[in-house]
Amino acid sequence: MDKYDKVVELCRRRGFFWPSSEIYGGVAGFLDFGPMGTMLKRNIERRWRETFIQSHHGLVYEIETPVVMPARVFEASGHVENFTDVIVECLQCHKRFRADHLILEQAGEIQGIEGMSTKELDELISEKGVRCSECRGPLGKVSRFNLLFRTNIGPYSESVAYLRPEAAQGMFVNFKSIFNAMRERLPMGLAQIGKVARNEISPRQGPIRLREFTIMEVEFFFDPKAPGCTLIDEVSDVRLRLLTEDMVKTKTEEPMEVRVAEALKEGYIKTEWLAYFMALSTRFISELGAPTASQMFVAKLPDERAHYSAQTFDQLVRLDRWGWVEVSGHAYRTDYDLSRHIQYSGQDLSAFRKFQTPHPVRVTVAKPKVERISADYGKETGKILSAIKGIDPGALKSRLSSGPVEVDGLIIRSEYVEFLEKEETLSGERFVPHVAEPSFGADRLTYLALECAYTEREDRVVLKLPPSIAPVQVSVFPLVNRDGIWEKAFSIHDLVRRAGMISEFDDSGSIGRRYARADEIGCPFAVTVDYQTMADDTVTVRDRDSWEQTRVPVNGLKEFLWSRLAPLRFIT
RNA sequence: GCGGCCGUGGUCUAGUCCGGUCUAGGAUAGAAGCUUCCCAAGCUUCGGAUCCCGGGUUCGAAUCCCGGCGGCCGCACCA
User: Fold this and answer.
1) Which domain covers residue A547, as residue numbers?
2) A47 and A72 part of one domain
3) What is the pLDDT along chain A (572 residues), one digit of tens a residue?
């Protein structure tokens, strides 16, 4: 029985999580969270929210957008086209392969294979004689498998929609509105915690690979001409364990350890904001209980990267059974998404950049000679006028200098337009912001925290969850159930509850059994009321990790507990 | 999707090879009570199992056969 099995067994037993729709046989890739699991997951989400959003108020804002979005959004985002795999199946042994990978493997380098249609790939396969790499059997037709969950909006089957595979698109399509509402300041981050769905071909690994999961993402918009991170000094000494693109290419396995400042100076990380978020992520994951030595960032090679990304690092964490597992992705998405939405929606999603000093420019203005045009075109004059308006005056001028210009069958002659040169002052220019994106899977983090916390002591399970995320923070026990001790204990339980902590009251079984129960759900503190309490109004507070007890006066209990629950814990 | 192994109370498991003695045993966890009280002590009582689902073979199936679902491992997949 390895650690994964032990954690899964504990989680079932104590109400953390288990397979979804279990009474009907279960469905692969979906997970149900019980009371303890939900509290733990919420706490992890809360800590993420505090780390990435609340401590950046004025810079990063949280929003909430629907899971279902119309097809057009994902056509624009490129997911309908690219969030697919080209699959080919061997007709003999029925093994399935990534078609493009198989072709490259057997036919060598082929330019532009990435963008090829399934037909083109079919042709390549017969042309190059590509066969099954396992049994040498013939291959079937190449097909595309899209990982988007598809649905309809309302009763109309033609209104196709998809469940979002990432929360990001909700932030991109809302960029302009929020940018306006938040007084047009850049940089600006938008964040979202919510459900996403990906129709994985064959998910395994329990909570690690799900078809529906909670994502926690920041889309951080900045001016590519002012890419500096204003907060970089706060993290410049944070050490990142990095496998750069070059190291991945040369199959290096041991990451280098570099300071954030160095990683930027050496160009390992292309943008400061990405580096900043990677540093925050290192701290965040440490706080969940994963030592920095079992964390690293690995660069994705160009052909492994998502279609939108110019640079991506995966943050990996070492798990007992599965080795290095991705817990977050850090992508430099450039202006890809906003540009695509500008193109597909026809809306202006750009920002305005003021020049430090406005500079004068000479502009060409086209002034149509209406009388001259109407002499030639009569009732169609309006069409000519709008055609002239639609062309950049400077361009029109140079084109007309070499003869008439034709637009939609209309002939524009040089005698129709008079060009004036004007002096104007330009105070700035429009541009499309760039985006750095850190993106986390909350379910994986929940499992990670549980695995890191799992320990055994004298045949008992002790979940050493960081107090900041423990589902239950305090347990209160009466040592005996008589002589007013029960009532006193219950009133202390009430006191702790009113102080804003999650407290459990347990009066059943021996005191040792109650400590053991509390340990199994990772409750960091157990308060016991005994005879001495009745005499001097003190209680014992027992520490989950050391099993040591401290006598604390009841009137100082709240402060005692809070001071030990609130601080962040960085485990190195 | 393919191949291998597997699926028994909440959990872990005995039984499956070789069908009947299994109206499924144990441990642990849970509830009620007694007792003890600072690390799962003890006693009593209680609840809880369509033996993953469906079909077949048989006088008889947890056990054998077929199909499905689910899990793990390997291959493949994982923007």
Assistant:
1) 472-565
2) yes
3) 789 999 999 999 999 999 998 888 888 899 999 999 999 999 999 999 999 999 999 899 999 999 999 999 999 998 988 887 777 776 766 666 667 777 776 776 665 665 667 777 788 888 887 877 666 777 777 777 788 998 888 877 678 899 999 999 999 999 999 999 898 899 999 999 999 999 887 788 889 999 999 999 999 999 999 999 999 999 999 999 999 999 988 888 899 999 999 999 999 999 999 999 999 999 999 999 999 999 999 999 887 787 888 899 999 999 998 899 999 999 999 999 999 999 998 888 999 988 888 877 777 777 777 778 877 877 777 777 777 777 777 777 888 888 888 877 778 888 888 787 777 778 888 999 999 999 999 999 999 999 999 999 988 999 999 999 999 999 999 999 888 999 999 999 999 999 999 999 999 999 999 999 999 999 999 999 999 999 999 999 999 999 999 999 999 999 999 999 875 444 33
* CB A475 under 7 Å to nucleic chain B: no
Cβ of A520 near strand B (distance < 7 A): yes
Distance A471 CA to B32 C1' (A): 28
A279 and A216 both lie in a single domain: yes
Q: Are residues A254 and A319 in the same domain?
A: yes
> What is the distance in angstroms measured between the alpha-carbon CA of A200 and the sugar C1' of B62?
35
Length in residues, chain A: 572
* Nucleotide closest to residue A507 (CA–C1'): B37
Question: Model's pTM, two decimal places?
Answer: 0.85
| CB-to-strand B under 7 Å, chain A 66-125 | 79, 82-83, 85, 93-98, 101
The whole-number Å distance from A13's CA to B9's C1' is: 13
In angstroms, the CA of A537 and the C1' of B79 are apart by 61
Task: Examine residue A556 and state whether it is found in any structural domain, yes or no.
Answer: yes
Total structural domains in chain A?
4
Instruction: For residue A458, say whether its CB is under 7 Å from any atom of strand B.
Output: yes
Q: Report the interhelical angle of A381-389 vs A370-377 (nearest 10°).
A: 130
Residue at A482 is within a domain: yes
Helix, strand, coil share (%) of chain A residues, nearest 5 = 40, 30, 35
Whether residue A281 is found in the same domain as residue A421:
no
Distance A5 CA to B16 C1' (A): 24
Cis peptide before A70 (omega within 30 of 0): no
Question: Which nucleotide does the CA of A8 lie closest to, via C1'?
Answer: B11
CATH of the domain at A124: 3.30.40.230
Question: For residue A275, is it within any domain?
Answer: yes
Which residue, of A429, A463, A493, is where some domain finishes?
A429
Angstrom distance, A248 CA to B65 C1':
51
Whether A192 and A318 map to the same domain: the answer is yes
Q: Which nucleotides in chain B have some atom under 7 angstroms from a protein Cβ?
A: 1-2, 7, 10-13, 29-32, 36-41, 50, 52-53, 68-73, 75-79
Which nt has its C1' nearest the CA of A14?
A: B10
> Are residues A198 and A303 both part of a single domain?
yes
Q: Which residue has the tokens 């005692």?
A: A560
Which amino acid, residue A462? V
Q: How far is the CA of A508 from the C1' of B26 (A)?
A: 25
CA distances, A165 to each of A20, A38, A555 (Å): 20, 22, 51
To which residue do tokens 């042994």 refer? A93
Q: Give me the interface pTM, i.e. the ipTM.
A: 0.84
Domain membership flag for residue A453: no
Beta bridge partners of A503: A474
Instruction: Tell me: do A89 and A73 sit in the same domain.
Output: no
Q: Is residue A372 located within the same domain as residue A230?
A: no
Cα separation of A395 and A387, whole Å?
A: 13
CA distances from A346 to A21, A339, A383 (A): 43, 10, 22
